[in-house]
């Protein structure tokens, strides 16, 4: 298990150059925009325009902050507000239109012929015991703070930090703190 802090993420260009992304983690590490099996990233959408196309990829987009946006996905309009989630095939043409100022979103992408993804939103209270995704996955903190103590290694995660769960971390962990989080699990097909 490893902690990726939001404050340590470095910006890079979108695949289509139209915006800014911050990669949280990918498998294999360093795979780039076309070679990953799974990828977690946060993006800043500061202007209306097209989203990057990723053939063969399933995408889960979770709106983290901002006034919202409208996504046109294959000709259908989807109005998103902070906290909303939408799943779509990433080869489908998508255009985003901001409802106000810039927004920040979390992107969870998987190569559909290799993996499936499950995303659960959880509200955890002090002392919760959390089942971990198996065989691999992540815990993304939406708000609050949690301390995971796997085997005596206390990892403190705050809003927009991510705990990456490498294969072999099946089971449960006990948490202290209170947090609203996403439990993300990647399963081979």
CATH superfamily of the largest domain: Jelly Rolls
**Roughly how many Å apart are the termini?**
23 Å
Average pLDDT across residues?
90
What is the tally of beta strands? 18
Radius of gyration: 16 Å
The CATH architecture of the largest domain is: Sandwich
Compressed to H and E, one letter per element, the order equals EEEEEEEEEEEEEEEEEE
Region (Disordered): 1-23
InterPro entries: RmlC-like_jellyroll, RmlC_Cupin_sf, Uncharacterised_HutD/Ves
Protein name: HutD family protein
Pfam families: HutD (PF05962)
Could you characterize what this model shows?
This protein is mostly beta strands. It has 2 domains: 2-111, Jelly Rolls; 115-188, Jelly Rolls (Sandwich). It is built from no helices and 18 strands. Strands 1, 12, 13, 14, 15, 16, 17 and 18 form an 8-stranded antiparallel beta sheet that branches. Strands 2-3-4-11-6-9 form a 6-stranded antiparallel beta sheet, with no helix packed on it. Strands 5-10-7-8 form a 4-stranded antiparallel beta sheet, with no helix packed on it. A hairpin with a 6-residue loop joins strand 14 (136-148) and strand 15. The protein is globular and about 50 Å long.
Produce the secondary structure layout.
Blueprint: E1 2-4, E2 12-13, E3 20-27, E4 38-45, E5 49-50, E6 57-65, E7 69-73, E8 76-80, E9 85-89, E10 94-98, E11 103-111, E12 115-124, E13 129-131, E14 136-148, E15 155-158, E16 162-165, E17 172-176, E18 179-188
Antiparallel strand pairs: 1-16, 2-3, 3-4, 4-11, 5-10, 6-9, 6-11, 7-8, 7-10, 12-18, 13-17, 14-15, 14-16, 14-17, 14-18
